[in-house]
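cache lookup: miss for this entity combination. No prior model stored, computing from scratch. Input as submitted by user K.M.:
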Amino acid sequence: MPRSSLLAHILQGIFADRQSKLQEVPAGQGSASSGSAPVPEKREGLQRRWAGSPWRTAGTRARGTWGAGGGGQARDSDSPLHPQEQVHRSTRSSPPVHRTREAGGEAVNDILGFYSNCAIAWVVTVATDIGINKYLLKLSPLQPEFRRGMLYAVNPVGVVAFVAASGLSIAMYFHALGDTFQPYSPVAAAVIAFVLTPLMAIITKGKYYLRRTDDGINEPLLDGDGNPSALTYDCHVCRQEFERPDMTACLTHDATVCSLCLSTDKTADHVLSPAPTT
Ligand SMILES: [Zn+2]
Ligand SMILES: [Zn+2]
């Protein structure tokens, strides 16, 4: 489906929802009719309510007093519309258009529903890695690391936990494990991620977090107060100055390189070789 068409579906779904809510207001006030009551009755209810409404201007209200004139007085043809009725009129649509809007709303529901399982799996994996693997099991390094060459390309801890949790919960969401389990797919995403993240860290003994601990620059990363060092270095690739925590040594060219140039290095020329962690 083209992107513009999907966007139109989303907008139609939202408007269809708002429209149905607007229609329910007069119906609920006037009678006990359900959402499927014919539209003319609803409009009558709205007009009756309008007759005694303080929204009427002074001129159209002249024959009665506020609150007391609610007894089925017909609205003057030249009187202004109630603001809600203006919206109601402008959003009314024919049944086929309405059905299209409902279908659009369902598609959005499906997309958001299955995507939310991925989001839950992701958030629980990260939170469990920080809360349990880092502070409780002490298998995950305390200082965050992001520079290429310092990390492994893939750490099975997060990858296995996230892929298993989101994959299984999405399968449940689409009824792959039967209708009974379908409503519990978000719970499954959270539980699987919560169990697998520490389990994978224990199985791998936390070996795949750091590829090496020494970035080749003698100056320590943190200053005496424990804050990131503000010393600057020149990147030999982009010729810009960056602070110490963003820099890594390049042994190939005996220079320093910034994290962005390191990440975009196609030939991996500036990337440090793997070394045993200390
Ligand atoms: Zn650079
Ligand atoms: Zn280099």
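stored under new cache key. Strands lie at 232-234, 241-243, 247-250, 255-258.
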